[in-house]
Amino acid sequence: MRQLLLFLALVICLALMPLVITKVYVLNLIILICLYTILSHSWNILGGYTGQISLGHSTFFGIGALIFRYLWTLGIPPYLALCGASISSLLLASVIGFPAFKLKGHYFAIGTLALSMIGSITVQNIFPGVSFPPPQFLSKYDLVPIYYMALTVAVITIGLVSFLNRSKLGLAFVCIRDEEDAAESIGINTFKYKVISMTLSALIAGLGGGLFSFYVASYYYYVPFELGWSFDPVLIASIGGAGTVAGPVLGSIVFVILKELFAISLGQMNVLIFGIVFIFTVLFLPKGLIGILEMIQGVKTLRMPLRRGHDPS
Amino acid sequence: MLRFIQILSYGLLNGALYSLVALGLSLVFGVMNYLMVAHGGLIMLAAYTTFWAFFYTHMDPFLFILVVTPLFFIIGWILFKVLFQSLMKFPEGEKIKNSLLISFGLLLIFSNLAILFWTADERAVTTIYSGKVLDVFGVRLPYIGLGGVAIAIIVISALHLFLTRTYFGKAIRAVSLDHEAATLMGINVSKVCLVAFSIGFALAGIPGVITSLHAFNPAISFELTNKALIVLILAGVGSIKGVLIGGFFLGAIEAAGVYLVGTPYREVFGLILFVLILMFRPQGLAGKRA
Q: Which among B100, B113, B275 has CB closest to A109?
């Protein structure tokens, strides 16, 4: 309950932000954090909760961006186009993603990597040009509607994942992650739950793609299909803490801020530093940054009853 | 017809390079279940090493195999001690997953380091025989590609002989079958793993030298890793002879794709084949059912 109130207060603060702060830079930063949160949570549902490490999220992200841009230029309002993008991503997942569940464990990871490479090469060949938003949007370009869309999608995503976190569905996912054979033996239909997990993940990735397309004015068609969009969510979710609600959010904040800090001084170095941090997280902090916070809290709660014990009253 | 033979022979020459690219990955994955996706990054670094060595000395690039291979052996030794030794104690599934994630991080680090140091420009070592071709009944075979085939056959046969005919090779094969049983037979498993891992790294140096003779850039590391994984799956895990066949097979498939559809989709054919094999024959084309 306290967490929910805290979350709502934070969302209201963020929603009022554009009225107070007119600095475009801050809004940009928050939009980016939202975008990476959405993408890494999308990966988190499949990779963090269900344990299916996907390296193919750029395909879902990219198809979302592609369809959103297409619908948007047809004159469909952005929020409807966003739904379309999300559904198109789901359709793609049902064509290529579900068969991928024939692949177990690490085969799934390298198989989805191959899928994302196929996607990126194919799009580069079919759409070699640059994608432009509708001209009437560009003529009165404003960051505020983009900001609200980013916030809305991020809130929906976080809400969905926190619902998962305490539902039976999420429990089934975690069960599959921890021991697939055991999960099957206690009556969990692993294929069904993997498909559900993939569905949710693809829907959210499509939303993220749509948001990208709404945010970035003009880009080469293949940009949202680039492999980086598959790799970043893995890094962000693992560093923040895969399989948690707050982990990917924390990871996204760290990722975006590191990126901003090093963008001017070191250019490419941000991925380099993130790669090193990532390796150390995998080796020494399997629970990610959230794990550190939990450890600190754990120490506190351990200490408290001790103190109470010494208290004479 | 001549065009088809020409495309196919190019494909097969490329295939020799692919089998060399996959060799180290296959050895490491076969012996200790580490999925070293950073392998392509190592090959890219080896290509840069060759490039700079050639730039300063102007000696024949094929000679640098003798320099690059030991250098990468040492790098492999160090990286195993620093990063990969702690994974030895995990059960098989965790081992694959963690090594995949760590080496994936390494891949990102390698490619970004390369961009930082040497920019994203295309480079290539240009020797006096670079553009020269051997004409066989109208089919043109570049000397560099033929050299690659020769090296691939020599290196893979040598590795095969090392694994089957020497005492240490026997130990490596024993470890790849069962770590615990090998320990009980008095084999120092961690030492064998260390050496096999370093050999895997050293084997990245050889395709690196050949890659440097074609055009390369830091982004090639992803492409090479991808080729290595495809050949690994085609060959079946842990099969050294299968790697040679798998590489040639991938080259031929890509050539068929180029002939039928066109050059832009060359890689897509290999990838589709890869996904299909993963789905229907995960033990590989040549491998036996587990």
A: B100
